Amino acid sequence: MDYATNVKILKFHPEKCKGCLECEKACSQVHFKTNDGGEKSAIRIHKLEKGYTMHVCDQRGLCLDMCPVGALTRRKNGVVWLDKDTCIGCQACVGFCPIGAMRKADIRIEPFKCISCGACVRACPEKALELVEVKIANIKQVVYHKLGG
Amino acid sequence: MVEGQIVIEEYKTGNTHHTWDLKKMQLAHKVLKNFSYKKSDVIKGYANRTLYVNLSTGVIKEKPVTDEMKKKFTGGRGFGLKLLWDSIKPTTRWNSEENELLITTGPLCGTTQYAGSGKSLCLSVSPSTNIVCDCNVGGFFGPYLKFAGFDALEIQGKAKEDVVIIIDGEKGTITIETAPLEETNTHLLSEQLTQMYASENTNKSRQKVSVVSSGLAAENSYWGCLNFSFYDIRRKIPRIKQAGRGGLGTILRDKNIKALVVKIEHFDGISNHPADPVSLVQVGTKLHREIRNLDRYQCNMRAVGTGHLVEIMDAYDLLPTENYRFGSFPKASKIYSQKFYELFTKIIPDGCWHGCTLACAKTVDGYTVMTGPYKGEKVTVDGPEYETIGACSNMSLWEPLWVLEFNFYCDTYGIDTISAGTAIAFYMEMYEYGILNKERCDGLELCFGNAEAVLQLLHWIAQGDCSTFVKVAAKGVRRMKDWIYQNGWGEKQIIEDSGMESKGLEFSEYVTKESLAMQGGYGLTLKGPQHDEAWLIFMDMVNNTIPTFQMKAEALHYYPIWRTWFGLNGLCKLPWNDIEPANNAETSEPSKVPEHVQNYVEYQNAMTGWNITKEDLILQSERCYNWQRAMNVWMGRGQRKDDWIPFRAMGPVTEMEYISRKERYDKQLVEKLGKSEKDVEKMTVPDKLRILYEYRRDQYEKLTDAVYYRRGWTPNGIPTPQKMKQLGFTDKKMLKMLEDKIAADERNRLNVWGGFYKKGEHPPTTDHQYWQKWN
Fold first, then answer.
1. How far is B211 from chain A, CA to nearest CA, in Å?
2. What is the pLDDT of residues B736-762, one digit of tens each?
3. Which helix (H) or strand (E) holds B125?
């Protein structure tokens, strides 16, 4: 089987962002069919003292090995995908995500994450977001299971 | 080495592949009994009914779980005790018709969000001890039993031929079927049944099946264990965890049960229907993060499992070697966790239940079997865990591959590595002294370190038709002691003092000689010498935080009761204190891990919707702890004489042991017994041994006095009716039995403290019927 070598991840242009959160609303529409954004969005925009920052999954895939039931897989397009019908809601991936990008909303037991669908990119009126292709080998991270400190 | 981001479908263990004619096997099944039940949801952690199966009469029925039962017994082991009390008699022995095998769950069992929430609690009257034995075990069976609709499974009676009991949560049926063609040994049987009963030929389907089985050696020994399977989608095999202690696998086979199978239709993260899933997720995720951040600096469970303890125990003189004669050994570094890490397959998750990120269940895949019927086959070895490695060091086996071999055969033959290892270590010591010899052991050279002889003994036990030696050896230390006496082969004292059993059960793998509190942790127990009640060695010996009898007694009150709590809920104890919050050392009582206790308060509340406090958790446990002790009394045991431990657990038995730690013991003679250094120099080793012996025996008696008093028991160790009433019990049969027993003890002058109190020393109280005032 051929595996993806590249994956599209989100790139943020902070100088363009005005904090309208249209991206979050679009994302929560994808995942929960609501415009709530916030905890129901896989992409989060945080206000800093000056400007904004983006917080989202970068498809590094450390969570893949954490899933006891195989609900997390890397799809053909390289995206790390959580199949919520297989997921048993253990939150191991949430707890072990090194950047806290595996999300959990109170209304559903299964977590959710960025699937690089581009809904946020399309929703952004300022063009502050774009999808860029990177090599998986360059971003891949393996969960810690080594001996010693 | 396989590194992470593994494509699940592609990982291969390299194990020998088997193809079986499963259709033929299944066609040979004869359905003996079929029972349908109405499927229903679990509500706030409870299925609200238990399942009763009688193999003699064919009766299968549901029993309701009442609110009263939840209040008094909580669940899990508590439910098991209650069901046993209602079903057995004080004269029931392990192989009695009415003896039951129970597998119970608990309200928190099956939760996926909080690490260590998949334990089943198994209970029965043990062949080793003739009292109730409780064992906790991982694997999927318990959670699936609950999701199939039952808080507990209760099996009474015996089948006439080998059967499997199938609990089909998909169809809502229970069937008892004969199973003549399947293997008996676990590594094959669990694979056959998992494939046979999976609804589809997929990984996903196989993961929804769990099998409980034992093996051929369980039939011929008192060490039978129950293997609980959990299907691993990466390795594509059912892996196993053991309910090891007390011979429950022996009971399974005595009932002619080849296996129990449970399958479920579906489950997800809220199949327990918690009252407050949001809080549950919060507390569970917090623990996941703690494990992620800190495990590598603390126990390193995720890398090496419980084997990390080997080097620590060796460093502190606590690793049992040569039948507990020593606590460390020059060759021990050959079995440090690093050596097993090199052999382990480094793929994870490795939890024995979903969502356990402590992930201590390690395997060696593609291990080539060196001896016996499976010689040359490549298999997955589940483990070894610390206790198994410790059992091997006890037999002086220092080659990791022999540890794996011992581990594999014990598992597949269905016997407990702890009991087998501890017992064989004792036989080896007897061999060294010439009390046993080649002739008496059927030509087996059972000397320390002879791994091939150890494996040969296991193969003989599994084969069955064997000599008196093998038959007795397979029943463990207690029966071997009696057999040696009967034959007049050795001096009673050395045999009695060095065979490491209490109540008939073999010790688990820690040297307790220098920790009085830990001696109590092994002796003053319900089922026998197992470390699951209390592990106080570091508090007592290394950190010296419990120096007085009173403080030790407090610890021997709190910890056994606290640790019992896990078993009432279907939880594993490891995530309580084998991972600690970063600031734990700065808390007022670090050894209790206060933040984690608070987690459990929140966890139980979030599941059940109750509003309990940490004191209530202790009360839940104290009830069941006392109930089990009272049941021991009811069955003629549970008294001071039954809480005795062999002297090897208290101090040096032989001159060699004394000389090997001469400096330590000489110093104690000066500091603790008031001897002058000059006197000590003049004394012979046997004299020193005798003095130390008397002193330590008396210390143990005094500890027993203090502990019984703290627990609210009589000086003979009987829970008083007053205590039981305080705990909320009103069962007249129980209260009357205890009252009668205490009156009989009074007549027989057994209500007296055991310690020898010199001038200036006092027993816990001078009122030897102190509980009478509690009315």
1. 18
2. 999 999 999 999 999 999 999 999 999
3. strand B120-125
Half-sphere exposure of B393 (CA within 13 A, CB side): 35
- Decide if A139 touches B, using CB distance below 8 A: no
Look at A88 and B267 and tell me if their CB atoms are within 8 Å: yes
A1 and B CB contact within 8 Å: yes
Q: State the residue for tokens 């104290």.
A: B622
Q: What is the pLDDT of residues B353-393, one digit of tens each?
A: 999 999 999 999 999 999 999 999 999 999 999 999 999 99
B residues 699..738 contacting A (CB < 8 A) = none
Q: What is the largest CA-CA distance in chain B?
A: 81
On whether residue B755 sits in a domain, the answer given is yes
- Considering the domain architecture, whether residues B88 and B221 belong to the same structural domain is answered as yes
- CA distance to partner chain B, nearest, from residue A145 (Å): 5
**What are the beta bridge partners of residue B224?**
B415
The verdict on a CB contact (< 8 Å) between B267 and A92 is no
Which residue in chain A is spatially nearest to B350 when comparing CA positions?
A68
Which residues have CB under 8 Å from B516's CB, separation 6+? B540, B552, B696, B699, B700, B703
pLDDT in tens, A22-34: 999 999 999 999 9
pLDDT at B465: 78
Number of domains in chain B: 3
B268·A109 Cβ contact <8 A: yes
Would the CB atoms of A95 and B291 count as touching at under 8 Å?
yes
Q: Does residue B540 fall inside a structural domain?
A: no
Q: Judge if ipTM > 0.95.
A: yes
Residue A99 sits at the chain B interface (C-beta within 8 Å): no
Closest chain B residue by Cα to residue A65? B5
HEC string of B646-703 equals CHHHCCCCCHHHHHHCHHHHHHHHHHCCCCCHHHHHHCCHHHHHHHHHHHHHHHHHHH
Cβ atoms of B241 and B137 closer than 8 Å: yes
In a domain, B523, yes or no: no
Residue A149 domain flag: no
Give the mean pLDDT of chain B.
96
Q: Can you tell me which residue has the tokens 């609709």?
A: B149
Any domain includes B90 = yes
β-pairing, B226-232 with B209-213? antiparallel
Q: How confident is the model at residue A149 (pLDDT cuts 50, 70, 90)?
A: very low
How many other β-carbons are positioned within 10 Å of the β-carbon of residue B329? 18
Rounded distance, CA A78 to CA A100, Å?
A: 20
Report the distance separating Cα A148 and Cα B537, nearest Å.
24
Separation in Å, CA of A133 to nearest CA in chain B: 20
Nearest to B357 among A3, A95, A110 (CB): A95
pLDDT (tens digit per residue) in B718-740: 999 999 999 999 999 999 999 99
Beta strand segments in B383-506, E: 501-502, 505-506
Best mutation target, A7, A82, A83, A90, to test chain B (most B CBs within 10 A): A90
Shortest CB distance from B355 goes to which of A68, A104, A140? A68
- Chain A: give the shortest CA distance to residue B290, in Å: 8
- Its domain, for residue B759, covers 558-774
Residue listed under structure tokens 């020593």? B326
Percent of residues, chain B, with pLDDT higher than 90:
96
Average pLDDT (B448-463) is 98
CB atoms within 10 A of CB A13: 13
pLDDT tens track for B160-177: 999 999 999 999 999 999
Residues of B in contact with A88 (CB under 8 A): 112, 267-269, 354-355
Q: Across-strand partners of B165?
A: B176, B260
Q: Are residues B164 and B237 in the same domain?
A: yes
Q: Which residue of B has its CA nearest to A142?
A: B4
**A106 and chain B in contact, CB less than 8 A:** yes
